[in-house]
Amino acid sequence: MAAVGQLHLLKICVGAAVVEDLEAWQALRAPLDRAAGRAGVAHVTRMWPRRARELLDGGSLYWVFKGLVLARQRILALEPATGEDGVTRCAIVLDPDLARVAPQPRRPFQGWRYLTSAEAPPDLGAAVGTDALPYEIEAALADIGVTARRAR
């Protein structure tokens, strides 16, 4: 779970409807990241965070799926990544383990947003897995301000 006072990133997970979609995509990318010598999985983004030092002090990237924050991954490093077009971008290297969080509604936005620990949803804990509610139920509960599980 994220510690109080830390800074995190909030990002919409484009192309993934549910957490399992992101897990599958990252599993496909993992061999490329290992071959590049990375300790985790990389998410390449166009801009470099200006508050990088704060993010690297225990921050996480919180993922938004269809208007709900549902998961987070600890940020391990920020590395330059040059694309095929020669443009240098930022590879956010993430812990491969995704932590489920209490669903929290978020309006659409572009890029990323900084997120303080006070604003971040709490982790659901290790009990999440096969007993997780379907996305539609989690979304409906979050829309009315109710979380499906008690956070740790």
Strand and helix layout:
Blueprint lengths: L6 E6 L6 H17 L5 E5 L6 H4 L4 E6 L2 E15 L5 E7 L4 E7 L6 E5 L18 H9 L9
Parallel strand pairs: 1-3
Antiparallel strand pairs: 1-7, 2-5, 3-4, 4-5, 4-6
Largest sheet: 7 strands, mixed
Instruction: List the domain count as a whole number.
Output: 1
What distance separates the N and C termini? 9 Å
Order of helices and strands: EHEHEEEEEH
Q: Please identify the structural class as seen in this structure.
A: alpha+beta
Q: What form results from the Cα inertia axes?
A: globular
- Mean pLDDT equals 85
Percent strand equals 25-35%
**Count of individual helical segments:** 3
Report what the structure shows.
InterPro entries: UCP032025. It holds the Pfam family DUF1489. The chain is an alpha+beta fold. The protein has one domain (7-143). It is 20% helix and 34% strand. It is built from three helices and seven strands; from the N terminus they run E-H-E-H-E-E-E-E-E-H. The chain has helices at 19-35, 52-55, 135-143; strands at 7-12, 41-45, 60-65, 68-82, 88-94, 99-105, 112-116. Strands 1, 2, 3, 4, 5, 6 and 7 form a seven-stranded mixed sheet that branches. The N and C termini lie close together (9 Å). The model has no long low-confidence stretch (mean pLDDT 85).
